[in-house]
Amino acid sequence: MRLTDKITQRRFLRQLDRMVRGAHQATTSTLREERGMISKLRAKCAEFAYVADSRLALPAIGSNLFPTPRGTDWAWRPQLWRGPLATKGLAAAPSKSKIGDEVTLYHDCRVSELTLRQLRNTRESDLAPFGLRMDVFQFDGSYLSLAIDLPPEACEGLRMKHLVRCDPIIEFEKPLEIFARLNIKHGPNVEQIVRELPLTQDNQMIEFDLGYSKLNEKRIEKVWVDLILEGPEMNQVTVRDITFSRYPRAEL
To answer: What is d(CA 44, CA 141) in angstroms, rounded to the nearest whole number?
Structure first.
């Protein structure tokens, strides 16, 4: 707030204070006039409070806060779910379309009837400021996936002792199957672990146990996760949030 605005505000508050203190001695015509002004002011104050409360109740833009298991040594929420993107959405999105720097759409449709749109989360339960909505109409392809590139920090210190956890919040109009595939490029090889998301449960969390992999810990170059949608035709899928974390497996 500028200095001139603060001075004006103080003057206005002093005027209100004088009106309150003088109400017992004021004439009825003055009271009627001032009461009308106060009524208008009260309506504007209520309107302002409603807008302010609504905005302040939204998840903070840029928020990277979310629950993580004990022992977590790395945690991350992708950019698309943290802050506003320059390009909010895509219509008739072709394969390999990017939305943000970290999310890429893949499909083999001859004619794309897919739309992607970033939306502002407004529910009380939302921790992520933004979500991603995908509308799928006619679908003549054999696969549809979203690839999420994890940052370089996900590679640093990654070991076979780790569990990589994915916590999505996904809504859909019609039941469908979604699989998450963890991909770890190490040297010329790519280690892949696939898990089906438990979409019918309140907690849709899954874990990838690297202890069952053949990972070369010294040559890890890149990590990404594919969300693979099975039977997506004529559906609306909203990814309200998705977070990733990493922690060592409990010693037996």
So the answer is: 54
- 226/221 Cα distance (integer angstroms): 17
By the 8 A CB rule, do 130 and 64 touch?
no
Does the pLDDT of residue 32 top 90, yes or no? no
- Other CB atoms within a 10 A radius of the CB of residue 35 amount to 13
Name the residue among 173, 183, 181, 179 with its Cα closest to residue 198: 179
Q: Are 170 and 237 in contact (CB under 8 A)?
A: yes
* Co-location of 113 and 53 in the same domain: no
Query: DSSP state, 60?
Result: P
Residue 136 in 3-state DSSP?
Answer: strand
CA 97/CA 102 separation, integer angstroms: 11
In total, how many domains does the chain have? Answer: 2
Q: DSSP code of 10?
A: H
**pLDDT (tens digit per residue) in 158-189:** 999 999 999 999 999 999 999 999 999 999 99
- Domain holding 151, by residue range, is 74-248
Cα separation, 193 vs 183, whole angstroms: 7
In a domain, 64, yes or no: no
**CATH number, domain with residue 237:** 2.60.120.260
